[in-house]
Each structure stands twice: as C-alpha cells, then as structure tokens.
Amino acid sequence: MNRRHIAYLACTTAVVAAGIGAAPAAPSVHHPAVHRVQPGQSIQKAVDAAEPGDTVLLAAGTYKQSVDITRSDITLRGSGAGRTVLVPAADPGKSACAKAGNGICVTGTDKKPLKDVTVRALTVRGFAKNGVWATGTEGLRVRHVTAERNGQWGIAEERSVSSVLSHNLARNNGDAGLFVANTVDTEEGARDARRTVIGHNRTEGNRVGVTVRRLRNLSVSHNEATGNCAAVFVVGDESAPRAGHLNVTFNHLHANNKYCAKTPRLPFLQGSGIVLTGVEETRVAFNRVEDNKGTSPLSGGVVLFKSLVGTPSERNEIRDNLVTGNSPADLANRDTATTNTFSRNTCTLSEPAGMC
Fold first, then answer.
1. Using CA atoms, how far apart are residues 118 and 163, in angstroms rounded to an integer?
2. DSSP secondary structure of 28-89
C-alpha cells in the first residue's frame, strides 16, 4: 500500500468517525395507541393524552362527565350503546362542554376544522342541551350511538362537512333527534355540506326526528322514524344560496303522531312525515310514509309549505313514494310555487286532489 492509499484511508476513517456523510436519522413515526378508561377515571385526560390516530376506549359502565375533543383523527369508542353510558356530572368543573350542557363536544373552527373524528358505540343521556355536539368538523363519524332524553338535540352539528351520522338511535330528546345546520348563531345562506350522510338511524319520541336546516348537498336515507311530532323537516328561507339540492330517500316514516306545542317560529306539530319548507331542488323518492295524522298546518304524509318568511319551495321532485293512511292528506302541496312535481306516488288522498 503506497502513501496515497494510506492517506485516503485515514481521511475516510476520520469522516466516518465524525459522522459526516452518515445517512440522516429516520423521522419518528407515531404508532396508533389505545388509551383505556374505566368508570371513575377521567375520559378527558385520556382524550388530551391521545395523538392523531389514537383510540380512547371506554369500558362498560356509567361515566358522570362530559368530554371535549379538540384534536383531529381521534376515535372515542365505548363498549356498546347501553353498556357505556355518559350522564351529566353533578359539578361541571372547568369543562366548557359540560358548562354548556353537552355530553360530547367535537370542537373545531371554520379556518381550522377538526378532521376525521369518530364517536361510536356508547350512550349519551340526560344532558341539559345536546348529547353529541359538533362544530367546525370535516369527516366526522358518529355511529352506533344512543342519544336519549337530552334537553335540545340528541346528535347535532353545524359548520361541518362530509359527515356520516349512521346507525344511531335518537329518542325522547327535547327538539330534534338528529340536527344538522349551516350555523346556529348567525344568519347566512345555505352551506355546502359536501355529501354529508344521515343514514340508517332510528328516531322516536322527539319533537322532530331529523332536522336539516339551510344546507345543500346532503342525503337523508334509509332511516326509520316513529312516535315523533314530525319525522323529517327540511328547512330553508330567502337567504342565498338557497337551501336544497338534497336527497330524502328510502326512509320509513310511520305514526309520528306525538303532539308538540307551537313555538315562536312554528305552529304546533303533529302527524308530519316529510316537510319541505323554503327549499329548492330536493328529491323525495322511494320512501314509505304511513299513518302520520294530525291537524297542524304541517300535518300529512309529504307536505310542501312556504317558509315562515314567505319563500316558496321550488323545483322539488316528489316521486315513487308509498304514502298511505296519512291525515289530512298523503300528499299536501300547500306552497305557492308551480315548479314542484309529483309523479308515480302510491297514495289515496292529496291536497289539492289529483296528485295520487
């Protein structure tokens, strides 16, 4: 070996020893973890410790607490509705969610929405306001949740897109079992819900089974509603863009004959299957709407009604529905617009006559 080779080897050894030219360290990768919570332990502490991709798993039992999820890609999962139950705490403490009267809050903003949060397999019961409340979310999933005896809404969201609310039971809540809206604290036009899905849920004993307010691009499909004052309520007004471009399909809505007193915004409710008020370009098809009976201005199987500010429902399509045994009519067009169409529906009585 000559001197040149010896010098080269010495330099190479020095470089390696100094770490110069070594491969960069691989970035740390978070492996999804499961944070287990037992009755008597804090759900909030587990949620706060969770990182994106993690699951907070609640054992069977009753939890007297609320929880606020403020981080994306977190799953809150119980051991089954009826087995894992959240009820209000006697003292809400510092929890903003509990102080507002809610059970589970998923809280993002318009500018920074919470993405891909999942809530499933548990019961939220007896909260003063809402069982599950979400604002500012994208891709929220609420599945196999029972929301019962909450003061306002069972499962509700605003300012949210691309949600899936499915296979839930919402019963005996003060207002809507399932409620979705553009926003609840300001007046503005309908928002694009970006294919939000409300599907395969059961609602019973609520004021309204499902309320959709001032939204576009959403489906209400394969739900069952019974024992509510009204089954499905789609609400718009004169704001721009208009509410509508929705699908209400393949639902079974029967005997929603509970009586609910009037409010400052609505007459008394009883015996309403599907009500469209102030919306456009909505398709109501392939539903079974049976035995909804009442004497409210909104009573009937499928009812079109101008909004409370006088805006008509326009270019809506009601077709291929089985609508029977409803009173005072199976199909009721109480609107002033002439652009709504009724076709191929199976029914007995219509208002005006001739639509069956």
1. 10
2. P-PPP-EEEE-TTS-HHHHHHH--TT-EEEEPSEEEE--EEE-SSS-EEE-S-BTTEEEE--
What 3-state class would DSSP assign to 158? Answer: strand
**Alpha-carbon gap, residue 279 to 311, rounded angstroms:** 8
Q: 306 falls in which pLDDT band (50, 70, 90)? A: confident
Q: Which of 237, 251, 247 is nearest to 197 (CA)?
A: 247
b/e map 244-259, b = 16+ CB within 10 Å: bbbbbbbbbbbbbbbe
| Its pTM surpasses 0.85 | yes
How far apart are the C-alpha atoms of 204 and 216, rounded to whole Å?
A: 25
φ and ψ of 186, to 5 deg: -140, 160
Least confident of 144-153, 232-241, 328-337: 232-241
> For the chain, how many residues are written?
356
Q: How far apart are CA 86 and CA 91, in angstroms?
A: 14
For 208-243, the pLDDT digits (tens) are 999 999 999 999 999 999 999 999 999 998 788 999
The number of C-alpha atoms within 13 Å of 148 and in the hemisphere containing its C-beta is: 14
55/75 Cα distance (integer angstroms)? 5
Distances (CA, A) of 265 to 176, 235, 262, 307, 308: 15, 12, 8, 10, 7
Distance (Å, whole) CA 229 – CA 332? 17
Question: Exposed/middle/buried for 24, CB within 10 Å: 0-12, 13-18, 19+?
Answer: exposed
CA distance 27 to 8: 33
- Separation CA 168–CA 156 (nearest Å): 12
**Which secondary structure element, helix H or strand E, spans residue 192, and what is its range?**
strand 191-199
Does the pLDDT value for residue 344 go beyond 60?
A: yes
